Amino acid sequence: MASLKMSISVIGSGNVAWHLTKRLFACGYLIDCVFSRNPDNARALAEQVKSKAVDTIAMLPLSDLYIISVKDDAYQEVIASFPKTTAICVHTSGSSEMKILENLSDNYGVVYPFQSFSKNKIVDFENVPVCIEASNPQVESLLITLANELSPITCLLNTEQRMHLHLAGVFASNFSNGMYVIAQQILQKENIDFKIALPLINETAEKVNSLFPIDAQTGPAIRNDINIMNKHIRMMEDEDWKELYRLISKIIQKQQHIL
Known about the structure:
The chain is α/β, with parallel strands linked by helices. The chain has helices spanning 15-26, 39-48, 75-80, 137-150, 159-189, 198-207, 213-216, 220-223, 226-235, 239-255, and strands spanning 7-11, 30-35, 52-54, 65-68, 88-91, 108-113, 130-134, 154-156. Helix 2 links the parallel strand 2 (30-35) and strand 3 (52-54).
């Protein structure tokens, strides 16, 4: 089905595609082509991996592996325009079923790097878990080989497990970053540099390397310090922030069996 080093075409040029494609190239894989509906984005990524850029699916060359890495709401459109193939087709989504690819090929699967990616922030793939799912044992074996080259942290997850992992990631990463934004805005209002909060943020993240999150919790909610909590709520003008403060405090107290 494929040579020792599979040739790869990448469909997409967003954050995940950007980092994954560059990592594959660094691991010695031939990147046949990069597709994006935005020609400038396709060219920018293709230049990084000594490949060519195209802006129509019909221009994709014959490759051993097609990696479809687009926004979740764009998968249907891309798949609908993709020709049936015997090559391996994978997507990189944490929240989409593997079977969305079943009409493209008998050989399909998922390569899901469980990390937050920003295009201009270097990612160390040595610390990126890569989760694999495959339609058959042969594809699974090939994808495991590929994943092990990408990262020393690899695992097999079925669709249900992967979707729950993605949900957990939204809470652990996306929602946490949303809280950082609020903290930044609170500090900016008082002309305080956000960098003063970085040691606290880093220490909180570091603690869960040695403690379960449930055991690392601190703050007024776990102390049931009603006076401080009410004072904090009065300090805020944004009603959404007030509601969020109350709700998260209530969740923490339930987690700790205070309520």
